[in-house]
Amino acid sequence: MPAHIGIVACSAEGAALCYRTICVEGAELLGAHAHPEVSVHTPPLSDYVRFLDRGDWDGVGELMLRSADKLAKIGADFLICPDNTIHQALPLVESRSPLPWLHIAEVVAAEASQRGFHRLGLLGTRWLVDGDVYPEKLSAYGLAYMRPDDSERDAIDRIIMEELVYGIHKPEAVAYHRQVIARLKDWGCDAVVLGCTEIPLIMDDSNSPLPTLDSTRMLARAALRRATWSA
């Protein structure tokens, strides 16, 4: 039997895309209408944002651990978190986790390396782009990276937190992401990490000036592979 996937969710839109990808693409591995068992838990997004605004990563980690404990109790075998930003808190609580985790940035870094990319642009919330979640994992694979400038980080953060997490997709947001990605291309990047799990809802290879690394779907597919290893 496939393993039971536990989703430690943060924002609804990114978690929903991850969940849907697992369920839809599971059929390719397991047969018509089949997919691994999946359970999702999330507290209100406001709980996470309150800790994030204070820079309280211990508080963020405790919320993640609370979800992990609940998912373990209902039978999950391993955990994923379809939110790049809060992975910064994972090292603070991983040793106390009742279950193992797949790390979203590790999954993206491995695929970027496999696809032969060398210098990646990094998009996401201000917390993510300013943090160490991706630099550590990318460096382990010998990958260089570039961040948008401060004004671009602020603008993308606003789009994510005021629009995308609410399911609002504006043409202006697409145009702005295209502009930032084009600048990253000019700076020598050969691919871009969609390092917010909502960004793939508006950006993909069809409208991006650079090849995209869709962290949401990559994590979902990695979870599918892990869940079906022994199935």
SSE layout and pairings?
Blueprint: E1 5-8, H1 12-30, E2 38-41, H2 45-54, H3 57-73, E3 78-80, H4 90-93, H5 104-114, E4 119-123, H6 126-130, H7 133-140, E5 144-146, H8 150-162, H9 171-186, E6 191-194, E7 212-214, H10 215-228
Helix pairs in contact: 1-10, 2-3, 5-7, 5-10
Query: Quick one: biggest sheet?
Result: 4 strands, parallel
Contiguous helical run count: 10
Q: Which ranges are low-confidence, i.e. pLDDT below 50, for 5 or more consecutive residues?
A: none
| CATH class division of the largest domain | Alpha Beta
Q: Compute the CA-based radius of gyration.
A: 17 Å
Q: Spell out the helices and strands N to C.
A: EHEHHEHHEHHEHHEEH
| CATH architectural arrangement of the largest domain | 3-Layer(aba) Sandwich
Query: What is the terminal-to-terminal distance?
Result: 5 Å
Task: Indicate how many domains the architecture comprises.
Answer: 2
Describe the structure.
The protein is an alpha/beta fold and 231 residues long. It folds into two domains: 110 residues, Rossmann fold; 112 residues, Rossmann fold. Helix content is 51%, strand content 11%. It has ten helices and seven strands. The strands form two sheets. Strands 5-4-6-7 form a four-stranded parallel β-sheet, with helices on both faces. Strands 2-1-3 form a three-stranded parallel β-sheet, with helices on both faces. The longest helix has 19 residues. It is globular, with a radius of gyration of 17 Å. The termini are close together. The mean pLDDT is 97.
